[in-house]
């Protein structure tokens, strides 16, 4: 079958072309492996709706469209553009936003343009849908097919499938160098109350250090890119695995950034990663109030949040924090605690 996977623009973003659509590229690689004709169209960077329309290709059997909270209406509009060019096509929606709505039964928020919704990872679920469609039956409304725990079973993203973008055209830099995003694992063992995908993220799945190192070397060889943004929810869960990965990528002369976890990371972790090329670590600090951290079920203390920032600075790694303001239960007093945390910890970003 012929499939076009479309990543919507984010017109209100300061810069909506920071990273290639990694999720769609994984799905595309799975489709290509199974003999389907597939292309990925990233509409980020295009502000004019006429450009969005011209990005939709004629003659596709399936159009798969990513949807975010901020692109719900726009993604649905792109779906209507697809039907204008091919009224018989099957319109498929996917992404964390739609997955969250399906899991919580909030169907009223899902546009009716979609014939089917992919819930969770799409690599295998889209193949199930295609099988049903190819057999002449009516596909289901939702498809969910969890991945194996061993992510080495699945092909790497193929950036050559981007039909309207070059991977070197994306804007994210690390230490001043053009970068590319990469996943070494999927999932998170924690259960923060603000997370919309607790069900999907419950199982942590890994790629082997060797497979990650091979992909990095391939990107270096093909594109000359040596800066990497590890997008794992929590990079240092399996410390033995991380140590092995650092041993493999250290000699490559790359730089990278990642997401850490207070209460799990140690100073020694940051020293090891720094030696292997780590430029920055970011954490979901969320709040400087223990009351709010407990309400969020962060399973961390304010003291531990202070420690990781201190350790990163000591190891020579740029420290970056994320905060949540206005979580249910927030008061002037808890906001003041967060303000004091920022002043006292003095994060770099």
TrEMBL record:
Chaperone among the record's keywords?
Answer: no
Under Gene Ontology molecular function, one entry of this record is: catalytic activity
The UniProt keywords, alphabetically, are:
Iron, Iron-sulfur, Metal-binding, S-adenosyl-L-methionine
Domain B12-binding: from-to ranges: 7-140
**Residue ranges occupied by any Radical SAM core domain in the UniProt entry:** 174-349
Q: Where are the transmembrane segments?
A: none
Instruction: State the coiled-coil residue ranges.
Output: none
Q: Which GO terms describe its cellular component?
A: cytosol
Q: Which SUPFAM superfamilies match?
A: Radical SAM enzymes
Q: Which cofactors is this protein said to need?
A: [4Fe-4S] cluster
- Entry keyword S-adenosyl-L-methionine: yes
> What is the name listed in the Swiss-Prot or TrEMBL entry for this protein?
Uncharacterized protein
- Species whose genome carries this gene: marine sediment metagenome
């Amino acid at each position: 079958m012929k499939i076009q996977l479309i990543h919507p623009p984010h017109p209100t973003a300061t810069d909506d072309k920071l990273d290639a659509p990694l999720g769609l590229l994984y799905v595309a690689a799975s489709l290509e492996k199974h003999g389907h004709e597939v292309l990925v169209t990233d509409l980020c960077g295009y502000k004019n709706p006429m450009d969005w329309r011209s990005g939709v290709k004629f003659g596709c059997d399936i159009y798969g469209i990513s949807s975010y909270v901020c692109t719900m209406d726009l993604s649905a509009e792109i779906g209507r553009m697809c039907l204008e060019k091919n009224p018989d096509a099957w319109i498929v929606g996917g992404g964390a936003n739609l997955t969250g709505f399906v899991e919580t039964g909030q169907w009223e928020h899902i546009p009716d343009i979609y014939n089917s919704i992919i819930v969770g990872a799409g690599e295998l679920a889209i193949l199930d849908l295609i099988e049903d469609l190819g057999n002449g039956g009516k596909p289901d409304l939702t498809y969910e097919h969890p991945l194996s725990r061993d992510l080495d079973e699945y092909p790497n993203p193929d950036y050559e499938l981007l039909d309207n973008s070059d991977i070197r055209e994306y804007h994210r830099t690390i230490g001043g160098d053009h970068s590319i995003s990469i996943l070494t694992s999927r999932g998170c063992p924690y259960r923060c109350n603000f997370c919309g995908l607790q069900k999907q993220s419950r199982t942590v799945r890994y790629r082997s250090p060797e497979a990650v190192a091979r992909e990095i070397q391939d990107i270096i060889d093909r594109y000359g890119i040596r800066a990497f943004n590890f997008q794992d929810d929590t990079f240092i869960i399996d410390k033995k695995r991380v140590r092995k990965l650092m041993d493999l990528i250290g000699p490559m002369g790359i730089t990278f950034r990642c997401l850490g976890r207070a209460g799990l990371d140690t100073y020694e972790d940051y020293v090891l990663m720094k030696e292997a090329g780590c430029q920055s670590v970011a954490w979901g600090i969320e709040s400087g109030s223990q009351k709010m951290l407990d309400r969020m079920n962060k399973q961390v203390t304010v003291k531990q949040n202070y420690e990781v920032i201190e350790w990163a600075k000591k190891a020579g790694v740029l420290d970056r924090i994320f905060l949540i303001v206005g979580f249910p239960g927030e008061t002037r007093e808890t906001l003041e605690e967060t303000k004091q945390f920022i002043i006292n910890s003095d994060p770099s970003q």
